Amino acid sequence: MSIPKGKTSFFGRFDNPEKFRLIPQAGIRIRIDPAGTGYPSCWDMNVSQETGVLYFSPCDETGRGAHTRLCCYDYDSDTSKVCTELERYTLPRERHMPHSKLHESITCLPNGHIIASTHSTDRGKFQPEWMPFAHVDHVWDGFPGSYVIDYDPATGITRNLGMPVPRESIYGMTYDARHNCLYMIGFMRGHVYRFSLDDRSVKDLGKAAEVFCYRLHRGPDGHIYGMTKSGFLWRANVDTQQLEDMGWRLPAQEHNYTNNTWYRYLSQAQNVSDHEFVFTSDCHNNFYLFDTNTCKVRDLGRCHDFDFESDFNTASYGMNELEVDQYGVLWYYVAPQTAGPQYDDFYKYPRSLVMMRWDYRAGKKPEVMGLIGTQEEALVRITCISLDRPRDRLYFIGELREVKGDRADRPNKSRQGIFMIDLAQMRNLPAPGPLWERDMSIFPFSDDEKKAALERAEKYNSYAGEEVAGENPVTAFPISKVTPIRLWRALAGGRVEDAEVNGIAWDGEKLCGVSGENGERKYYFELSPRGPLVFPSGKEADRDETVWVWRSILQKSIIEKSTDAGYEVYPPTSFAYELTKFIPYTEIPVGRKKWLNANLHPKAYDVDENLKLPEVAGRRYLAKASACIDFSDNRQIIGTKDGLLCIAKYGNVFNLGNAAPLGPVRCLCTNADGTVLYGTAGDVEDMGTVFTYDDCSGLRQLGVISYNSHGWMDGPTAAHVLTCCALSPDGKYLAVGNADRLGCVHLFRIED
Question: Which pTM does this prediction carry?
Answer without folding.
Answer: 0.87
